Amino acid sequence: MRLDDELAADTEALARTEGKSLNETVKQVLRDATERRRKDPAFKAKIKRTIEQDRELLQRLAGAPALTPTCTAGPQARTG
Question: Exposed end of the chain (fewer CB within 10 Å): N or C?
């Protein structure tokens, strides 16, 4: 992972202050960010949308029919 100079210096200072390696500091920050997002309802909604989009894409790539529900209720055709 590449960091800009300022972020790298800040992260290195944080690691030194906490007595940890730069690698361990970055891993902990990523764990913390991941955990916060897992608890965020808005993020969960985004994940669900992404999963559905990926499912549809993979089904198209595989040549499989979409497994999305078909709406059967709707306007009736008029005859007349």
Answer: C
Which of 20, 46, 45 has the alpha carbon at shortest distance from 31?
20
Summarised one tens digit per residue, pLDDT across range 31-64 is 999 999 999 999 999 999 999 999 999 999 998 7
**Any residues with CB less than 8 A from the CB of 43 and at least 6 apart, and which?**
37
Distance CA 52, CA 68 (A): 9
Contact 34, 27 (CB under 8 A): no
pTM of the model: 0.58
The residue type of 37 is R
